[in-house]
Design brief:
Elements (H helix, E strand, L loop, with lengths): L2 E3 L8 H15 L16 H20 L5 E4 L3 E6 L2 E6 L3 E5 L4 E10 L2 E8 L6 E6 L6 E5 L2 E5 L4 H10 L4 E2 L1
Parallel strand pairs: 5-11, 8-10
Antiparallel strand pairs: 1-2, 2-3, 3-4, 5-9, 6-7, 7-8, 9-10
Helix pairs in contact: 1-2
Amino acid sequence: MNTAVPVAPAVSPIWFRALVWLVPLMLILPTWLPDDVQTGRPLPLGGKIAFTLLGVGLGALFAQVPRRLAYTLTDTGLRVSRFSGTFEWPYRELRVRRTDGGLGLKVGGVGLPGYYSGNYTFTGPAYRSVQAIASNTRGGLIVERGGTPYYLTPADPRAFAQALAARGVPVLD
């Protein structure tokens, strides 16, 4: 029986959300200004359409990426879905650790409001870096697989850890 685990709601500073949404707007709006400031010639209609489509496409991508993040407890393992695909970890390969730490600097990957995926430094005492598959930078827990720590942010980390423990996953403190 598959049990979907709610992901923690996204919490990002307003300045960060504004900065992210500024990128598509900066592709769309300047293309429709009267002339190119340097040459005095307007951008051809094909160029305006191309930049507008690029901006709209980025905006759509930014809106869709966080919605693809999901955790599901299946009969055989923990299924994790993210924008780049879905994979399942067998319960026998996992360990869970509660933590008060959070994500630090992004080393590589994606960092959008509501979607953090990739390598990040970690502010907790047990790890220097983690693989993030999270909706927030704080309030998650660590799921270890093969010695690699993954930072996940279910809506209720304590209940998530208990559900994993009920399936035989060791919970470390």
